[in-house]
Amino acid sequence: MTVSRIISTLSACDLIDDLKIIEINIEPPVQSIKLRARLKNGILLQITESNGNDFRRYSYHLQEGDVIIKRWDNAPHWNNIRTYPFHLHIKDQEEPVESKEMFVSDVIAEIKKLNYDEK
C-alpha cells in the first residue's frame, strides 16, 4: 500500500478524530510513513510502514494510555510462529500469536470488530 493510500484510507475513516503525520518519505525507491491517529474514544493508533520494490515493513500499534491493546507487525523475529514474519502482540500476553499480513484497512476493520470505536 502506498503512503498516499494509507493517508486517504485513514482520512476517510469515521473513527478517527485526529491524524498527525510524524515522518513521511515518498521518494523512490522507498516510501515510508510514521503517523499517529487518535480515535474519537481517545485510543491511539500508531502506524509505521515502509514499502520498496521487494519489501514491506509495517507496525500497527493500538494503545490506550500507556497500555498496548494490540500490535500487528512483520518484524523478522518470532520465526517459530506459523505465519512468520506476520504476528500479533496482544495485551497481557508474553508472546505474540499468528496473524495474516495486515494493511491499514484490515486494522480499521479489526478496531470496528473489537468495538474500540464505542467506549
Please tell me about this protein's structure.
By secondary structure, the chain is α+β, with helices and mostly antiparallel strands. It has one domain (3-113). It has helices at 3-11, 104-113; strands at 16-25, 31-39, 44-51, 56-64, 67-73, 87-90, 97-98. It has a 7-stranded antiparallel sheet, covered by helices on one side. The protein is globular, with a radius of gyration of 14 Å. The chain starts with a helix and ends in a 6-residue tail after the last helix. The mean pLDDT is 93.
Layout of helices and strands:
Layout lengths: L2 H9 L4 E10 L5 E9 L4 E8 L4 E9 L2 E7 L13 E4 L6 E2 L5 H10 L6
Antiparallel strand pairs: 1-2, 2-3, 3-4, 4-5, 5-6, 6-7
Quick summary of this structure?
With 119 residues, the protein is an alpha+beta fold.
In DSSP terms (H or I, runs of 4 or more residues), the helix count works out at: 2
The poorly predicted ranges are: none
Mean pLDDT: 93
Count of spatially separate domains: 1
Reading the helices and strands in chain order gives: HEEEEEEEH
Which bin fits the share of residues in helices?
10-25%
Q: Largest beta sheet, briefly? A: 7 strands, antiparallel
Identify the overall geometry.
globular
**What separation lies between the terminal Cα atoms?**
30 Å
Cα-atom Rg, whole angstroms? 14 Å
Provide the β-strand percentage band: 35-45%
Count all strands and give the number.
7
Strand order of the largest sheet: 1-2-3-4-5-6-7
Give the structural class.
alpha+beta
